[in-house]
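Following up on my earlier thread - several people asked me to post the actual chain instead of describing it. Fair enough. Here it is, all 306 residues.
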Amino acid sequence: MKVNFKVYSAVVLAMIFWAFSFVWFKVANVHYTPITIVFLRLVISGTLLTIFLLATGKFIKMPKADRNKFLLLSLFEPFFYFLGESYGLTYLSSTVGSVMISTIPVFAAIGAWILYRERLTTLNYAGIILSFAGVMLFIITPSGSIIVDLRGVLPMMVAVLSAVGYTLVLKNLAGTYNPIYIVNIQNIIGTILFLPLFLITESKEFFETTHTLPMLMPVIKLAIFASSGAFILFAYSVRHLGITKANVFSNFIPVFTALFAWIILGDTLSIQSFIGMVIVVAGLFLSQRTGRKRKILGEILPGKTA
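Reply from S.P.:
Thanks for posting it. Predicted structure:
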């Protein structure tokens, strides 16, 4: 019982950290622009994970044969993913953003079927349709008008599609490398990719600003809890629960995000929004009811704001 309690506590805590990341970003976005937020959290996370891997003796030299795969992985996530998600959350509420991101497993299933011809069950199709219905209910008013800013929806869709590409590349690496190592390498490469953008577009403003701990704290929380701690906790839960049982908990991220945004940011949560959120979660559960052939997709480290 003690072991089970520890494992389930770890996976739930990981989902809570990822859910909080949407709220922390909205708070950080008050003082910092998206590129700065992403660059700082990658620097902090990459440093912490490198120290962790070195301390545990799990840091290894990356084989030359897989360098292109890691580069492609990092281009999808964190580079394109964080660009889309960060600019999307600039115009969307944290709750709506988390609901859109929670559709990643659905699109990943479609991508796997197209690229690898992995079969979908009837429940998978039902889950995809139900999930889309829930998202539409969540962002459309009873009169039919859209209650979200399309300037946020389009970048968020870039994030979703980037996460799908990330998943399909990760499929070739997850069986060989430790998940924490994969995340560390992608964060290091991501830092290098974001460095020119940061220096060109936002570094002047950043260095001319007087920074305080309260201003930096949301970014620090994103790096420590979302980009680092959540992945470690999730890896621990996968080791003891198995891939499928651990991954299904990612469906609770929008639920936690809506709750935290309501408590911390004062976001409204109408009856319609609540019903839409429930439908999305139900659809995602159905979409994850898979057979043996799609099981490898459970290696996704879900997301969130990574």
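The CA atoms of residues 243 and 298 lie 5 Å apart. That should answer part of your original question.
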